[in-house]
Inverse folding.
């Protein structure tokens, strides 16, 4: 397991950017953590690391955003509002998972659909270490960051 400390949003962004250096088509990155811990900040860094130049925002209402201008296609999911796992089948999640690098915010909601080789990232706060402090734990990554 890789474990990182982030003391400001820029650190979280840079850890995401660093992970993108080992990204490849078919890579599934699952993000979990409370509201406001920096999942979207991490994702923006990941996108930047892939060379995505479009503005990246959380696809809360659309479920998935597609970015194809980076070195691999990038698909950003926010499954927070998924009420029924069937919704993932309706949007064709399997094609996205196979074709590009995917980051899924709130991934534990659809855990049954996640491939066993996915990378899981948990972002947590520790207010005793400061308001902006985050611990970022990465499991399932074969490469060392």
């Amino acid at each position: 397991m890789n474990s990182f400390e982030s003391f400001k949003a820029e650190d979280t962004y840079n850890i995401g950017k660093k992970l993108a250096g080992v990204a490849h088509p078919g890579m599934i990155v699952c993000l979990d953590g409370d509201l406001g811990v920096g999942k979207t900040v991490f994702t923006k860094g990941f996108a930047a690391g892939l060379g995505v130049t479009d503005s990246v925002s959380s696809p809360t209402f659309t479920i998935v955003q597609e970015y194809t201008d980076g070195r691999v296609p990038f698909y950003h999911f926010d499954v927070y509002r998924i009420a029924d796992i069937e919704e993932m089948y309706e949007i064709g999640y399997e094609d996205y998972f196979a074709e590009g690098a995917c980051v899924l915010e709130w991934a534990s909601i659809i855990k049954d659909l996640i491939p066993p080789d996915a990378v899981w990232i948990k972002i947590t706060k520790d207010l005793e270490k400061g308001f902006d402090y985050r611990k970022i734990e990465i499991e399932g990554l074969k490469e060392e960051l």
About this structure: The CA atoms of residues 17 and 48 lie 6 Å apart. The helical segments are 9-20, 39-50, 86-90, 93-99.
